[in-house]
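Regression test case RT-17, inverse folding.

Input:
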């Protein structure tokens, strides 16, 4: 299928990045969010991300100008998806919400449109089995921050057609991304492995085996991870990580049982950079700032 227009539903951390990537790939891009302020913030974030990309020499000025002209917004889902060949949802990780959206996609999207979810853990069939277009449903798992991160996990269900997979692979290529193909399973590849590493790091911290700083340092310098597990969980959000572990624990079993220290931090409101405190503390002025291009891991942690 020849994709010309991409609709992105949900303009939060991921949706705005996906819209950036879609416009970068030369697609007419329609962005929608239930919250008008979030939508406006997303558009200015995208503009800034392109400016930063140009300033860093990652994006050519002509590409940036063309991409920015390809972005528009819509004030409701039906309008956003009407002309779209590919719809990517990036609303919060709640099954009911995704279920509701896929029902709307099925009703209002144009014939032949592909429905993709950016879920980071849920089984795609849990919310796509409601649609009559199951062969055109797929997972497209992007990574944060999208402008910088190269990977998309392309998750195919038992019903996803080869044509849908091929179309998404081509879209990913034009977005400048690399694809790995995964048969649907909770947590795919990355979320599943990362959840275990992060949980184990909390077990070690709780047992007093090493400090958070030294655990992070060990994984960076000894195992060549670009960020330590605590730096990463502070970026992702401890609540997000806990939800994922709870889900993997329910679906995949005991080895994913969330660590109790992680649960306690979440109960105490230590959610990571977004609340100014997670495993580490962050100066207030930096807590809300999220950059589209390379951040320096843990730089602000003290
Ligand atoms: N944050 C990450 O690092 C990350 C990485 C990969 C995948 N994901 C996945 O991406 C999805 C979105 O995560 P996020 O971090 O961007 O969340 P977010 O909370 O930053 O953004 C979600 C956005 O969706 C909007 N929204 C809520 N209901 C809506 C609706 N019915 N219609 C339109 N917009 C609606 C919200 O207003 C918000 O702006 C989740 O499924 C998450 O698991 C997140």
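Golden output:
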């Amino acid at each position: 299928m020849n994709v010309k227009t991409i609709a992105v539903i949900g303009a939060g951390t991921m949706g705005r990045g996906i819209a950036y990537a879609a416009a970068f790939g030369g697609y007419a891009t329609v962005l929608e969010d239930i919250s008008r302020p979030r939508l406006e913030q997303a558009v200015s974030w995208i503009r800034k991300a392109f400016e930063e990309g140009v300033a860093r020499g990652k994006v050519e000025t002509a590409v940036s100008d063309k991409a920015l002209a390809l972005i528009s917004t819509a004030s409701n889902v039906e309008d956003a998806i009407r002309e779209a060949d590919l719809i990517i949802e990036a609303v919060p990780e709640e099954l009911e919400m995704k279920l509701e959206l896929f029902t709307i996609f099925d009703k209002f999207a144009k014939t032949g449109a592909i429905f993709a979810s950016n879920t980071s853990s849920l089984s795609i069939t849990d919310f796509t089995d409601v649609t009559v277009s199951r062969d055109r449903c797929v997972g497209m798992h992007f990574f944060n921050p999208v402008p910088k991160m190269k990977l998309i996990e392309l998750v195919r269900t038992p019903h996803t057609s080869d044509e849908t997979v091929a179309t998404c692979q081509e879209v990913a290529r034009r977005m400048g991304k690399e694809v790995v193909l995964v048969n649907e399973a909770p947590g795919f590849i990355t979320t599943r492995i990362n959840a275990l590493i992060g949980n184990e790091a909390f077990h070690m911290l709780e047992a007093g085996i090493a400090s958070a700083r030294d655990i992070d340092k060990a994984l960076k310098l000894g195992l060549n991870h670009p960020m330590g597990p605590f730096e990463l969980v502070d970026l992702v959000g401890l609540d997000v990580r806990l939800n994922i572990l709870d889900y993997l624990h329910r679906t995949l079993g005991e080895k994913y049982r969330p660590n109790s220290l992680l649960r306690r931090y979440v109960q105490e409101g230590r959610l990571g950079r977004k609340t100014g405190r997670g495993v580490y503390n962050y100066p207030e002025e930096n807590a809300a700032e999220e950059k589209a291009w390379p951040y320096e891991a843990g730089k602000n942690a003290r």
